[in-house]
Amino acid sequence: MGGDLALFGAAFAVGIGSALLPIFVNAEVFVGGLGTMVNNRLTLLLAIVSLVIATTIGKAFVFQLARKGSRKIRSVERKAARNAFVGWVRRVSDWLLGLLDRPYAGALTAFVSSLTGVPPLAIVTIMAGASRQPQWLFLTMVFAGRMIQFLAIAFLFQKVSWF
Questions:
Q1: Which residues of the chain have pLDDT under 50?
Q2: What pTM does this model have?
Q3: Which end of the chain lies in a sparser environment, N or C, as judged by fewer CB atoms within 10 Å?
């Protein structure tokens, strides 16, 4: 049981770290490692829940910093895409980021970003905080998207059936 508590604590720490420093702490890699090392489904599930709760708490902190900070985010001109797929991803990203100006339609952006990483959740969090997004809705979508993503990663790495 002591090992499980240490695992849950580590998952929580990685969740906070990945929310605040996503370039240096990668939650998806951590979940992949969990999926390969943890054989007990309940322990794995509880570690993922701990990770998702911590990630959501960290994103709430970043959201509030952006909300209290600058209200305007400058748009940066991008270079032309090198291939059609990259161009398509950029157009979808730009469209989703544009939805953040709408209080409830922007929830789609938070969910898609949490689930797929496109557009990057770190950017979406800052832009959502600077926009008119309701914090409760943003955090609900982040929680749901990250939970689905992390369970899917763990499922792929552990090759178990959750249902």
A1: 71-76, 161-163
A2: 0.81
A3: C
